[in-house]
Amino acid sequence: MRSTTRTRTAAFAAATACALPAVLLAAPAEAAPPPNDLVAGATVITAPTTVTVDTTEATADPGDGACVGDKSVWFRFRAPDTGRLRMTTAGSSYDTRLAVFVGGGGHRQLVDCDDDRGPGRSAAEGVRILEGRRYWIAVSSCCERGPGGTAVLTVGNLGLAGTEVVVDRATSGSVSGRLVVHGTVTCGTPSEVRMYGEASQRVDDNVARGQSYRSRPCGTAPTRWQMGFDSQTGWAFRPGAVSITIRGRAWDGIVHRRLGLGSSVVTAVDDPDGRVLP
Question: Which CATH architecture has domain 39-155?
């Protein structure tokens, strides 16, 4: 009886040892490239539009053509009329390249190519299009192989959407004497905003006055910003009412748009450190 038990136990252990590695060594499923990874799968778009694609699993094809780098994704559209079409990759999370072709899928001709004409590391183009012609747009990475990321392509109506700047609070360091202004900025299309600020505050019979500059990416969702002001008059800022004026420009890679909040009065609350985040 003992001999039989030992035999069954040994057989079970041997079977388990053989089955276990098969489970442990199972290969993980590979992530698939985006549907528009190849020219044949180009996403059909109409203007105006903004599209977002994750390119971390995108590839490159030898037949992509000139000006197309690694991690390429493709879009195509047929021009409804003759005119000039603007496009940009502003808002993308990595260094992008933009290429526009015309013609059939297998017989494309390069129309325009750009790398860094847009804000930051984005690309931007203004292309003349002819009614009825088919155009192909490739968004790829530049200028060396990288992990890709979030690609944002905006086509048409650039420069037409407005930009809103809001100041919602201010802090002043009772020890540092520095003023920090906080707010949000919202753009109708992905852009870069460059803001210039002026602050002034009555300090007894004198005036504390300072200037500051801030550059920020901007999109359709509110983006928070901060500006730090150090007085240039020798009188430090302190908690209390302060006048703020914000001016600047928003740039989508094609068009510069002026923005201006004008002057507003906010009450600065005490913050001993007066810190400004990067």
Answer: Sandwich (2.60)
